[in-house]
Amino acid sequence: MAKPRIEEAIKNLVEAFIEHSNSDLKLNKAELMTMMEKEIQNPEVKAKLCAADLDKAMERMDKNHDGEIDFKEYLKCVAFMACRCFHKKTGKCPETQSCH
Ligand SMILES: [Ca+2]
Ligand SMILES: [Ca+2]
What we know:
single chain, binds calcium ion, 0% strand, mainly alpha, Recoverin, domain 1
């Protein structure tokens, strides 16, 4: 039987967050950088997340401006990446707010 892809993906997303947050369940900038480095392979995404742009990414992700990424903010980022992936594969724009 094929692996349950959605279940696995969700589990991985949650585990990556917990692991990289170092158990306070929030990602500071250093933790975010380590996570991006370890968990993202797409060179296009990586190029966007080089040190200079990390501040910007952090700013965009950190909706409540407390200097850390909590789980809710992380989910928004995941939704954004999912939208980008959808767009790349289908050429269509998923009409959700997460893409903007
Ligand atoms: Ca942390
Ligand atoms: Ca925050």
